[in-house]
Design brief:
Layout lengths: L25 H32 L1 H7 L5 H10 L4 H13 L8 H19 L7 H23 L7 H33 L6 H9 L1
Helix pairs in contact: 1-2, 1-3, 1-4, 2-7, 3-4, 3-5, 3-6, 3-7, 4-5, 5-6, 6-7
Length: 210
Amino acid sequence: MSDVRTYGPEGESNEPRAAATNRWTTRDVVVSAALAVPLGLIWVYVWGLVWTTGRAISPELGFLLDGFYIAGGVLVGYVVRKPGAALLGEMIAALVELPLTPFGAVVLWLGLVQGLGVEAVFAETRYRNWSLPIVMLAGLFDALFGWFGYDYWIYGYFQLAVGVQILRFVLKLIGGAVFGGLLGKLIADGLAATGVLNNFAIACDRVREI
């Protein structure tokens, strides 16, 4: 067990910098797909109903609930913990969603920009810090990139009153942090508790916490 990684406070890896932790394996790709494909289906058949209902109650509530549509990047990135994992998770989930939604190919663009938002945060920590604040920040940046990379311009939100723009922007970020970041982490931690992710670093975190 000499290759077991150790983790410091707040989920930060103490692994030697020279270790080849960023090397992808077939297992990493398979697990990324196994996480992202069901999530894409949930977006279409489950969360779509939640979002539609929330938006019918209040348009602003829809902006908050948008956050779960960006959980793919956080979930896969948090589990696999390698450069590009978050982007891959978003893109696979978007590909699953593509033929099943009326939005068409735009979901691929959203998967790209949102995945880059998550990657930006994880890359800033050199893929070594997986604490709750960092994961929630990744969800927030996912929403931020999606907002300015598509929503703000395509839906003409820039034409609205400044107060409405600010409210919707803040709700979008909160939704990303909570439903994308926090909920994505909780799903991953729940899966880790079952033992199905024992070969990943997330399982080491769980052992350390116990």
